[in-house]
Write a structure and sequence with these properties.
Number of strands: 10
Distance between the termini: 25 Å
Shape: globular
CATH architecture: Beta Complex
Structural class: mainly beta
CATH class: Mainly Beta
CATH topology: Metal Binding Protein, Guanine Nucleotide Exchange Factor, Chain A
Strand content: 35-45%
Number of helices: 2
Number of domains: 1
Largest sheet: 5 strands, antiparallel
Length: 134
């Protein structure tokens, strides 16, 4: 079921809302950045995501040449979302970091299906060989 969630960074400078259907699935990726930060995300279309405050605090980190903007708060360092274009995930997307959601319940997270993707090998439509550590 589609629900509007609200999220923020740790210091609260960045605030956003996103329309997410957690029952449609969440993702964990094995790329080096997601592995090191233990990222757990939900993919939404750009029109389902709205920055409410603090866009001027966002800093951008890109790597690997795939055009994904890994955004984080310049004040507290928390990553709340990424955005970019990857054909295998349906084109333009916003990847919302579930840990930054303020009003999601533990039950909603526990019930959300998780798909592991092989970002390390740019095989976004396939699971990695090993997923236990994700």
């Amino acid at each position: 079921m589609l629900k509007t969630y609200h999220g923020s960074c740790h210091c609260g400078r960045l605030r956003y809302e996103a329309d997410i259907d957690l029952a449609a699935g969440t993702r964990r990726c094995n790329c080096t950045l997601c592995t090191k930060t233990r990222a757990w995300t939900a993919i939404v279309r750009p029109d389902a995501f709205r920055v409410l405050d603090g866009e001027d605090y966002l800093k951008d980190y890109m790597f690997g040449g795939n055009g994904v903007h890994h955004l984080f708060c310049a004040r507290c360092g928390v990553r709340a979302f990424s955005r970019g274009y990857v054909e295998e995930v349906g084109g333009h997307f916003v990847s919302v970091y579930l840990a930054s959601l303020d009003d999601v319940t533990p039950r909603e997270l526990a019930e959300a299906p998780v798909t592991c993707v092989d970002g390390r090998d740019d095989a976004w439509d396939k699971p990695p060989k090993e997923t236990g550590h994700l």
